[in-house]
Write a structure and sequence with these properties.
Layout lengths: L8 E5 L3 E3 L3 E3 L14 E6 L7 E6 L4 E7 L2 E6 L4 E6 L4 E5 L4 E5 L6 E6 L10 E2 L2 H8 L1
Antiparallel strand pairs: 1-9, 2-3, 4-11, 5-10, 5-12, 6-9, 6-11, 7-8, 7-10
Length: 140
């Protein structure tokens, strides 16, 4: 993981309980760790290593991502240029605020990426900016 420069995106530390023999449990305390009321959860798995997921910014949605298994790279832009974050630790979550460009790449074969969202699924241009050029124009 890397340190994020601004606050539109940040790393949230989670705590694991357990050991190598019994395994680990990582609770996500919704009222303490997540900076919004969670309305929806979903997870991604089975992605090809060369796949790109995301590739958009949200107008009204905030999200928290946890790489629960395996690894991937998150690419975010908060209006200051793209930053790359390696996600390979289930004890670290990535928060993305509104108007934060985010995409995910370089998936390991066993990657499971969990997402927690502040809204129910809201398709279309009321929530999504899918053009990176349009995002750059709106963020400045």
């Amino acid at each position: 993981m890397c340190k994020i420069k601004a606050m539109r995106a940040k790393i949230i530390d989670l705590k694991a309980f357990g050991d190598q023999q019994m395994g680990y449990l990582v609770p996500i305390e919704l009222n303490e760790k997540i900076p919004f009321e969670v309305k929806r959860a979903y997870f991604l798995y089975g992605m090809d290593q060369k796949a790109t997921r995301g590739g958009h910014a949200h107008i009204i949605e905030q999200e928290v991502f946890v790489c629960a298994k395996g690894s991937c790279k998150a690419i975010i832009d908060q209006g200051q240029g793209k930053e790359e974050i390696t996600m390979n630790n289930a004890e670290k979550a990535l928060f993305t605020d509104t108007m934060t460009w985010h995409e995910f790449t370089d998936f390991s074969k066993d990657c499971v990426l969990l997402a927690l969202s502040s809204v129910n699924y809201t398709p279309g241009d009321t929530n999504y900016i899918t053009s990176y050029e349009e995002f750059l124009q709106k963020i400045k």
